[in-house]
Specification:
globular; 2 helices; 12 strands; single chain; four-stranded antiparallel beta sheet; mainly beta
Length: about 190
Amino acid sequence: GRSWRRYFMFWSPHRLHRMTSGDGVVWSDHRVVMAAPFHRFFRDATVVKAGEGQWLLYATGRGRYFSRVDLYQSFDLEGWQYIGAALRTGWGSERNSIVASTESPQVVEHRGRYYLSLTYNNDSFVWSTLLLPLKIWLRRSSYNDTLVFHADNPYDFGEYRGRRRAQTLLTRLQAHAARLVHEPERDRRQHDA
């Protein structure tokens, strides 16, 4: 028989919306599945399947002084529990705006390692935030700066305190909201060859 598939689409900001589809084209059942995230700067949510019946959600967040990537988990894609910061930034980090600089986080797993990519945006603590609504960027190149971190588990990618003090920073890409894609079937074909 034909297997039945169900697709889920999530989006934000400020709260998490969800819709479902049987074919990935026609969407229905719109719900707000997280009305009050842990931080008010919650946005750019991305969901990753961590195991059978467990999903992790990464989102742009902000601590008391610095930007970060927040982590939530769910066992039914309906209720979400705040876990903590998956990546923190601190003193020495080049950019930290008052509305959060760790944008568009995404996590992929490859051969037992986890890779977190995020766009590290905004040049200054105040000016970029004030000028952004006017579509003025002081340094437009900062809009295209993706950082890629690595870790041995999907819960903790360490703390970013600038390029020279970033033990988990793997590389930088000149791109905005870059997406890493891992194709497991291709790995299996190459391994079997």
